[in-house]
Amino acid sequence: MARFRPNQMLGLAFATIIVVALAAPTLRWLYLKAPDGTLYGYTDAVPPRPHKIARAFREKTFQQWFERYSDANMGFRKPLILSFNEITFRLFREAPRLRLYSTRANGLYSQMSIDSLNDEVSRRPLLETSYQGEAQKLFRVQKLLQSAGKDFQVVIGASKPYVYPNDLGHRYLVGGSDDIYGRAASLGNALRAAGVNVLDGGPFLRDYVARTGVETHSRAGVHWNYYAGCLVARQMLQDIQDRGIVAAPRLECGEPTLDTPHMIDVDGLDLLNIWSTGGVAKRTPYPKPTLVGSSGATPNLPKIVFISDSFADQIYFSLQQAHVYSSLIGSRYFKAREIVDSASGAVTATDVHADEAKVRAQVVNDIAQSNIVVIEMVDYNVQRWDYGFADYLLNYTAKGGSIGPASPGAALAHDTHPQ
Fold first, then answer.
1. For residue range 172-231, what is the model confidence (pLDDT) as tens digits?
2. CB 318 within 8 Å of CB 251
3. Helix, strand and coil in the chain, % to nearest 5
4. Which of these, 92, 341, 371, 419, could form a disulfide with 346 (CB 3.0-4.6 Å)?
5. Is 35 part of any domain?
């Protein structure tokens, strides 16, 4: 029996490695059957496979599909990206390309949120003047809606730096975290001074955290968590009820239930594209939203229109879970329109490609049929100036447009006040 020389053994081993490396992408594809090569921020969506293969092959659409499918699902691209990101995040606790940074106490922060807070410190005098102008405009909107028997509420969403600044310190915040909010311009303060109904999420949640120690932002996410969304929804309805313009049921959030973060509570972790959870997927509280009725009777439920950004989603969740509305229309950035079903929570976007002017006209029509109008802006979006809603509505009514009287479903608050 012939023996292999050392150099032959080395050559055989090298050849074996080359063959395995070349075969690995195909073997991986066969083994995984339906591999998922999705990488957030790296991979374009792969279109569905053509049904008629022969025809698609002749028309060369199959080749185009296969190329995009292969780019996403075959080979070492995804493992290499995940491995590189894992090592980088473990070493430096940040992902600068994604503008995400992490602290051991509070997990992931978005650079966009940090920049917003620093901007309100650095440009405080200028922004205070701008915020006063915005507040006066929104007060005019409030008076206009109240004259039609509708309640108006501004909710300022709170991103993580506006609730948990301490771990950011001088490395990320201008002048450090000491008295950071006292040194920053505040739209919430300007709105209150102008008489606008406002629920400012930052101070509201900071006070709640100080009193209870309950986490309001998942370490694995960059939005507020679902329990915080419920707390804001509960307070919003309480404020509406206290004003007494329209009926508003009471909402309870229940005791916070700790669970593994999921849904929007892992949006930051998803963006990291790493193998592990990065040490940030700690359990976070979830609510059990319930409707508190009036002496056993079902109260008349309001019709609500939101002009909002993504921080409204956690509010929608609790409102829907507790079934506290008869109708909820959401307009993301006052550019799109969606219907949130009260029974199932299903979100129906009537036409995601609709013309913006048509969407705005439809949303104003929704407002005419509603009882409650809410503008929600997260802190880093307040300088998008209510997404243009106030200017549009004021111009619309100045030209003779009608936002209607209170909807027939809007009973006076004292008729359906929960006991």
1. 999 999 999 999 999 999 999 999 999 999 999 999 999 999 999 999 999 999 999 999
2. yes
3. 50, 15, 35
4. 341
5. no
The predicted-structure confidence for 58-78, as pLDDT tens digits, reads as follows: 777 777 766 666 666 655 667
257-281: pLDDT as tens digits: 999 999 999 999 988 888 888 889 9
Contact by Cβ (8 Å): 154, 166: no
Q: Is residue 27 part of a domain?
A: no
- Token pair, residue 360, equals 């705005």
Tokens of 147: 């004259």
Q: With residue 284 as reference, give the H or E element that holds it.
A: strand 284-286
Q: What is the DSSP letter of 199?
A: E
Residue 78, domain member (yes or no): no
- Identify whether 14 is part of a domain: no
Full-model pTM: 0.81
* CA-based nearest residue to 217, from 279, 278, 163, 178: 163
Q: What is the pLDDT of residues 131-185, one digit of tens each?
A: 999 999 999 999 999 999 999 999 999 999 999 999 999 999 999 999 999 999 9
Q: The domain containing residue 191 runs over which residues?
A: 102-416
Q: 207-227: buried (b, 16+ CB within 10 Å) or exposed (e) per residue?
A: ebbeeeebbbbbbbbbbbbbb
Report the distance separating Cα 1 and Cα 167, nearest Å. 70
93-106 burial, b for 16+ CB within 10 Å, e for fewer? bbbeebbbbbbeeb
| Strands 250-252 and 290-292, sheet pairing | antiparallel
By DSSP bridging, strand 100-103 and strand 257-259 are: unpaired
Count up the domains in the chain and report the number.
1
* DSSP-derived 3-state class of residue 200: strand
Pairwise CA distance, residues 144 & 137, whole Å: 11
Give DSSP secondary structure letters for 69-102. Answer: HHHHHSSSHHHHHHHHHHHHHHHHSEEGGGTEEE
Query: Which residues fall within 8 angstroms of residue 84, CB to CB, at 6 or more apart?
Result: none
pLDDT for position 88:
85
